[in-house]
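The following block was generated as part of the benchmark described in Methods. Ligand: magnesium ion.
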Amino acid sequence: MSLETTFKRRSLPLDRPFTISRGTTTETEIVTVEIVDEDGTVGLGAAAPASHYGETAATVEAVLPDLLEVVEDVGDPHQLARIERRMRERVNRNPSARTAVSTALHDLVTKRLEIPLYRYWGLDPAETLETSFTIGLDDTETMREKTEAAVDAGYGTLKVKLGTDRDVEIVRAIRETAPDARLFVDANEAWTPREAVETIDRLAEFDLAFVEQPVPAENPDGLRFVYERSPVPIAADESCVTVADIPRIADRCDVANLKLMKCGGLREARRMIHAARAHGLEVMLGCMLESNASIAPACHLAPTLDYADLDGALLLADDPAEGVGTPDGRIDLDALDRPGTGAVLE
Ligand SMILES: [Mg+2]
């Protein structure tokens, strides 16, 4: 068998500037990967590199030739374990670049088998759930307006970015605007352990499902300090990168937030889900600012999750790819009428 591979960098402007505690983004860069078999079937994947984890579009482009050489050498897309092992031997970091190749291979394999990806894994599309919609940081009135727009658009689960000196005011305004919504909040490492405990104590009255990454990942003792004192469940995101982190966070949080762009591929994500469950953690799958080219594959893991935060493509002004439909935020795998991940470049 022979496989041909190509990749392409794309700049994607956001619908509106997106702010978290670490800064503001107006545009995101992704790199799409295509792997074509001898019948002309195309597998599509994409990297959405995050500078927080040491990657940019340029670093992805720098390592993709090595990774795709492995794919061409092995030549058989069904040899996922062999290809992923050899890619890790060549390039140990660069998780979003490896994820792009992993998802393109999964897309190609399941297109060759003419089934959607979730059927390849034997998952039940009825066990799906709804994605949260993220409200980025802004002045409180604008965050209230964004909340109103999200509720009007049908989203029942909202994730609110925090890490300001008016976090309680923000959550109060959002809870008033969306009294029935399920609410997550995400501090993106902004608080000290003591600030986190004080703030979460004050936020508890607003009925939050969990508080994500209250303190920096470099402070695991601080995470445990908050976890042991918090009246609200705690989720770990920046503290939870690969499967090796699961035992490290198990007695420091309630929810593990995995992302394909952190862990390096769909197979690693599945290992993390199993490991997290074995450690008694709930599982959320999150995302970066991403196109449907990489959100669609993530959607196929929905039946294995407790929470999905897969709204990256909803925050773009214009997505070059179509993916899995999310009417009213619900990840609708059942409605997917094509094989593979469902990601299609326009
Ligand atoms: Mg987060």
